Amino acid sequence: MSLRARLTLLYTMLVGVTILAFGVTIYHFISLTIREQLDRVLEQTAGEIIKNVHVDPAAGSLVVKNEENLRLADNVYVQLWDHANNLNYQSPNLADMHRPLDPLAKSPSEKVTRDIFIGEAHLRVISIPLSIGSRRIGTLQVAAGLTIVDAAQEVLVRVLIIGTALAVTVTAAGVYFVTYRALDPLSRVTQTALKITRADDLSRRIPYQGPAEDEVGQLIAAFNQTLSRLENLFYTQRRFVADVGHELRTPLTVIKGNIALMRRIGSTDDELLQSVEAEVNRLNRMVGDLLLLAQAESGKLPLEHRLVELDTLLLEVLQQSQVLARGKLTLRLGEIDQVLICGDRDRLKQVLINLISNAIKYTPPGGEIVAGAGKENGQARLTVQDNGPGIPAEALPHIFERFYRTEKSRTRSSDGKGFGLGLSIAYWIVKHHNGDITVDSTEGQGTRFCIWLPLSEGDCSPE
Ligand code: ADP
To answer: Domain for residue 162, yes or no?
Structure first.
């Protein structure tokens, strides 16, 4: 059974049962009230009659005096029985009926009130024992017709049944309509999900016109977010495979060409061998970088946790990098402060090498690169700043992605230097040190990378 049908059934049943319980309560309450009022009238009438009942001293029977003053209503019936169960008096509207109004209460020990059927007639009968002192002298039975009460109750029952049926029908229709409106977006979610599966098209999104903060809105937003994420992942994965393929092709072509050439000339040329070796080294580096990234992204990057003097590390990297910058640009030390952190010295060195070699790679001759180590806001900070071409604003959010290179560096990549993996590796290493890496860049002015790491108190005991 569908959720819509179940909800409709549930709500309809709830409304039906509530109205029914309400109706039954009203029915009982009204019949109780009517009977109470009727009983009061019967008791008053009985009281009037009792005042006029006398015992005939000669015959020992009961007599109702001043009968004409009683002014009994048409639907009120009276019988007076003596102690020997002889009918001594009955109201004229009973004609020649000789059986008691309430046969079961002919000689009651106390007042008895009951509903009685005599033939078709439905009566409310009150039977009151009459006595003088402790001597029983007879029974007075006063009755009133319940026909009007029955008719009123019948109308009430009919109104309640029709009302309940109407309310149940309206509720069922209402709930069906409301749940249709409320659940319709869900069936659209299902249909879109099925279309996505069939068409393999993750670019589709579920449209929703309702309020974004309601449950369905939130569900659709979450689903759309999942789709975006999946689309992103698929796109990244596809791009990754394409990029790896592309990066492998160039060195492999060079290697294949050189080998073919050597075979053709029939000797191993030293220059050709060097070129093959360089390409093999390049491939080796790329595979190494990819393995490192795979480890880092899956959280399985083995890291040492030792005290590292970032200032010393920076000086060391600067010194080693001078050879790359020499004759081309100035590579110098900016601010330097003693900064201690806990981490993996070799990995952090790799991060610094990546940033500094990028700066050297992308800054045109005559440029300047300044690197520094210091503290800010209770954190260690390493900076690498250049006055190179800068990174376009639209590229900034992507530079830490695998294989990402700006258009300019892609076209330059024929020099075979970069794979677009250096910053991804730097990002993951810093992240695994509970740090952060940020970049500020203005096109035409330069780029500044900052690495933020938690400072150490000098103790690097394992966490
Ligand atoms: P690559 O191997 O291409 O250098 P990276 O991951 O190290 O890959 O860098 C990604 C991209 O970020 C580079 O291709 C380049 O476009 C840009 N980039 C990185 N550092 C700089 C810099 N200092 N100046 C300008 N662009 C840079």
So the answer is: no
pLDDT at 409: 66
Amino acid occupying residue 448: R
User: Whose alpha carbon is nearest atom 8 of ligand 1?
Assistant: 420
With beta carbons less than 8 A apart as the criterion, state whether 336 and 372 touch.
Answer: yes
Of 421, 425, 423, 413, the C-alpha closest to 249 is 413
**pLDDT value at 383 more than 50:** yes
Question: Which residues' Cβ are closer than 6 Å to ligand 1?
Answer: 354, 358-359, 362, 386, 388-389, 391, 399, 404-406, 409, 418-424, 447
- Regarding whether 331 and 292 lie in a shared domain, the answer is no
279-313 pLDDT per residue, tens = 999 899 889 999 998 888 888 888 999 999 999 99
Q: Which atom of ligand 1 is nearest to the CA of 449?
A: 23
Listed residues 297, 325, 352: the one ending a domain: 297
Contacts of 220-228 with CB under 8 Å at 24 or more apart are 220/185, 220/189, 223/189, 223/193, 227/196, 227/202
| Domain contains 405 | yes
Same domain, 244 and 336: no
- Residue 336's domain spans which residues? 306-454
> What's the number of domains the chain is made of?
3
Instruction: Supply the mean pLDDT for the chain.
Output: 88
